[in-house]
Structures are given as structure tokens and as C-alpha cells.
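**User:** Everyone, produce a chain:

**Assistant:**
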Amino acid sequence: MSARQYGVNARHRWSIISRTLAAVGGGYALTSLLALAVPLLLSAAGLNRAQTLHTATMAGFLVYAGVVIAVFHARSASRAWAWLAVASVPPSIVTILLLPTIIP
């Protein structure tokens, strides 16, 4: 195997490793943020807390699957990480703004 082929193989392997970490870790983090932010929003709108929590938890399974698919569909691993970072900003803001007002 030539040095060039080794470089291409190593780059490809690191890309797969990075995407896997983004899908597993980043997907979990984004899904958790959404599973926290959605019930807070719906609860602030006046809906029942138990129903909003159940709805967000069930929807989290679909969101996680979609995030995993999107991460491996991205053109590069860095774009996947950037997409995860940008997508996690709105639920983070909602959580920061609404969490202190909801907890008694």
C-alpha cells in the first residue's frame, strides 16, 4: 500500500469515526435538549405536563433516528458537527429561558 492510499484510507476512517461520534453523542445531546425544551414550551402554553412529557419522549425516538440519518447524509463530518451545533441552539435557549419559571 502506498503512502497516498494510506492517507486516503486514514482520512476516510477518521471521517467515519467522527460521524459515528456525532450520530451517537451529538444525536443524543440534541434529542435530550429537544425532549426537555418541547415539554417546557407546551407546559408554558397551558397543556398538561404529563401529556407534554410523554409526547416529547415518544417524538424523541423519531428525532434521534432522523439525526443519525442526517449526520451520515451530510457531505462531510465537519458539516454534520456544525449542523448539530446550530440545531442545538434553539432548544438550549428555550430551556434556559423557561426552566427557572416552571420549576416550583
